[in-house]
Structure prediction request, 395 residues.
Amino acid sequence: MSNAPPLNPPVRVLLGPGPSDIHPRVLQAIGKPTVGHLDPYYLQLMDEMREMLRGVFRTKNEMTLAISGTGSAGMETAVVNVIEPGDAMVVCVNGVFGARMTDVAERAGAKVTKVEKPWGEVFSVDDLKDTLSKAKPKVVGIVMAETSTGAWQPIHEIADLVHDAGAMLLVDTVTALGGLPVEVDKWGIDIVYSGTQKCLSCPPGLAPVTFNERAMDVVLSRKTKVQSWYLDLTMLAKYWGAERVYHHTAPINMTYALYEALSLVHEEGLEACFARHALNHEALKAGLAALGIRYAAAEGHRLPMLNAVHIPEGIDDATIRRELLTRFGIEIGGGLGAFKGKVWRIGLMGYGSRENNVLLLLGALEQLFTEQKHKFEHGASIAAATQVYAAATKT
Ligand SMILES: *Cc1c(COP(=O)(O)O)cnc(C)c1O
Prediction:
């Protein structure tokens, strides 16, 4: 066998739906010496990492940890620990990830009632009232930041409704966490999961989760074993807790990465981090509007970190995305499911949410649109974005 070519990944600007651009400090952290998963150094690092996770989740929940696996492993952990075969669960579906949650819940044996809304829209209290009183669910699942549509689901009022109906609220914050306020304690969310490669700007591979006391009481009083051995919180708790009982080997160097990524968020400050995401979104939005590009999500419910936009008439989706990647090194996302070929998904997540990325992307789009003989006012998108930045620095 001849030698495989040397590893030489290209440097990209990751402006898709995740993974996002990684801060150099996080990449360095991964390369630090591996220690054992019961090494006192590692155990202390785990505790400090958990405390920083509680900070971004804004929770005091004891059961806050990082699951070994990507965001979908977080989704499975959230579902399989609280659901026993035959339990009723309501899942809100307005995009790909609500649909995935339905699949996960059904595989765990839940009797699932779906509440659906068109892609790009969000759920109001009125959309859920009737279903909750009829289905009497144990758990209601909803996605806060639907990455397939760019829609921002408000959680607070829904949480009150779900609790009044006697159910627990389970929220997907994979794309939301680190880019939008996620108020686990204030809103009373019972079960929450996230991922590392969206607004936390850490490579994919860990899934932060947090369960409140009410949810843990349910987990600890189950009649049946948790369907997944790997994701069983009752066993994981003994490794993350004082006993330090071996369950599976922790992904040590990924924990270094998440530790560093969370340190960066806390050094910047959560509020400053949210404000940065909001500002770069406003600048991009102004620039895209100047190119005649419309958003897919309803006005007032657009995510700052994920800009899902309609591809302009006459523009070839595949050509633009290929040229962005090969000539400019920029990755943006195509549409999923119902939005395939119709929508671009432009992520400004975590370390990727920066002024230089917004201006670079708008400039590249202007160049490619010109080559495709698309009609627009040259330079207008850059001018619109720079005005947003100029106005922000004045205040
Ligand atoms: C990315 C994503 C997931 C799945 O995470 P993976 O890391 O791809 O497993 C789940 N929910 C939402 C909202 C996401 O954006």
Observations:
- The chain has two domains: 24-267, 269-394.
- Residues 270-290 form the longest helix (21 residues).
- The chain has a mean pLDDT of 97.
- The radius of gyration is 22 Å.
